[in-house]
Design a protein that fits this description.
Elements (H helix, E strand, L loop, with lengths): L6 H7 L1 E5 L4 E5 L3 E2 L6 E4 L2 E4 L2 E2 L5 E5 L5 E4 L4 E9 L4 E3 L3 E11 L2 E2 L10 E4 L3 E3 L7 E2 L2 E11 L10 E17 L24 E2 L4 E6 L3 E7 L15 E7 L5 E3 L4 E4 L4 E4 L8 E8 L2 H4 L2 E4 L3 E3 L22 E6 L4 E6 L24 E9 L4 E9 L2
Parallel strand pairs: 2-5, 3-6, 4-7, 5-8, 7-9, 8-10, 9-11, 10-12, 11-13, 11-14, 12-15, 13-16, 26-31, 27-31
Antiparallel strand pairs: 1-2, 16-17, 17-19, 17-20, 18-25, 19-25, 20-24, 21-22, 21-25, 23-24, 28-29, 28-30, 30-31
């Protein structure tokens, strides 16, 4: 319900209306403003909160038919019930906490996508929301406090792309956002997440999208896909789809499992095994097994490398790459750590790591035995073997 509040009430409550270049803004100048039970208040202009606006009961609505609304200020806002009906969006430049119900009627709640202390729409304790859809969701960050199970109503400007978390106990906190971006070169984030850097051979990683998730306790997560996710590039069978995560410590993508899938290759969901979200920076969809399981395997002779500048055995030479430049090489230690990966390998490996993990990137690997795999998708072959690296 849209409720108009008179200027006389603003003055009593410590509010004022300031005139901007585009529209008026309602400002709380530091008063302790509180909405009592069954009370209703509607904002039809920008709202800046520089005072106390918490311990509220009743409903606060944000409404605008023809312009975005901005919620700003130096103090956070805590509401009981809130509803959002602004087709061009409600832009959060302040934290907004909901203690009972958030009604997403029309238009997105938008936040910046910077993960350095982002503003969020937060749901506490037993709070819930309704109305989430492709045209009413959170385009940015959602957080919660003290919940065991929660579905984040996140997405991009055009699509709802939710993530569900099911924790082993009540999670003290969690935060999530969806990014319709290539992890290799994100637009919103300063970091990059090399989809060729996998902890397991044969793991395919989506280049279409990813989710940022942080939470405190071991959990399962459920990710969704739609036609734009192009999961056919990851697997031809939904049973082989996976949740995958970028490990903060090893700087590799890891398979986080598949305990249940629903849907088909056009749309559906996949649920992970239990893992600790705090160990991973971002999550996305992946595929396993069928992308490489049908390839014929050729066991090659072992190699000897001695990149010491004498002109002999300086690089890992695999003759087939000259005829099949569409390939992927991966090199692992005996313990399984990925130390080198290269798409379209052309015999460049000279004993130096190019991944972040156990060894410094760009530095020479220590002497020892290493395992390599090179995949030729067009030939339906993968070659594998060992080599000894001498210094």
């Amino acid at each position: 319900m849209k409720v108009y509040t008179y200027l006389a009430a603003f003055a009593i409550a410590g509010l004022s209306i300031s005139e901007g270049a585009a529209q008026s803004a309602i400002v709380n100048h530091g008063a302790e403003m509180r909405l009592h039970k069954d009370g209703q208040m509607g904002f039809h202009a920008d709202f800046r909160n520089d005072g106390e606006f918490s311990e509220n009961q009743g409903l606060v609505g944000f409404y605008s038919d023809d312009t975005p609304l901005r919620i700003t200020g130096s103090s956070g806002i805590e509401l009981f019930d809130a509803e959002f009906a602004a087709p061009l969006g409600v832009i959060l430049e302040n934290d907004l906490v909901i203690n009972n119900n958030g009604n997403l009627i029309e238009g997105d709640v938008q936040t910046a996508r910077n993960t350095e202390a982002p503003y969020t729409l937060k749901f506490q304790y037993d709070t819930f929301y309704t109305g989430e859809s492709d045209v009413s969701k959170v385009d940015g960050f959602v957080s919660f406090q003290n919940k065991q199970d929660f579905t984040f109503p996140v997405g991009d400007p055009n699509r709802l792309r939710p993530l569900t978390i099911n924790a082993s106990a009540v999670n003290p906190s969690g935060v999530c956002a969806y990014f319709p971006e290539d992890p290799n070169a994100p637009v919103s984030l300063a970091k990059a997440y090399n989809t060729s850097s996998q902890a397991e051979f044969g793991l395919q990683v989506s280049k279409r999208e990813f989710w940022y998730l942080q939470a405190d306790l071991p959990s399962q997560v459920t990710l969704s896909w739609d036609s734009r996710s192009e999961v056919r590039n990851l697997s031809t069978d939904t049973e082989n789809l996976r949740v995958v995560g970028w490990n903060k410590a090893t700087r590799h993508w890891e398979d986080l499992g598949n305990t249940r899938t629903e849907g088909n290759l056009a749309s559906g969901t996949v649920r992970s095994d239990v893992f600790n979200p705090g160990e991973y920076e971002i999550l996305t969809l992946g595929g396993m097994s069928d992308a490489t399981g049908s390839l014929s395997v050729l066991e090659l002779d072992n190699y000897f490398l001695s990149p010491n500048g004498d002109g002999r055995n300086e690089r890992l030479i695999i003759d087939a790459v000259s005829e099949a430049p569409n390939n992927t090489l991966q090199i692992f230690t005996q313990s399984g750590a990925l130390v080198y990966t290269k798409e379209n390998y052309q015999n460049e490996f000279d004993g130096n790591s190019n991944t972040r993990g156990s060894f410094e990137r760009g530095k020479g690997l220590p002497e020892g035995v290493y395992f390599y795999m090179i995949t030729f998708p067009e030939l339906r072959q993968k070659h594998q073997g060992y080599f000894y690296l001498s210094r």
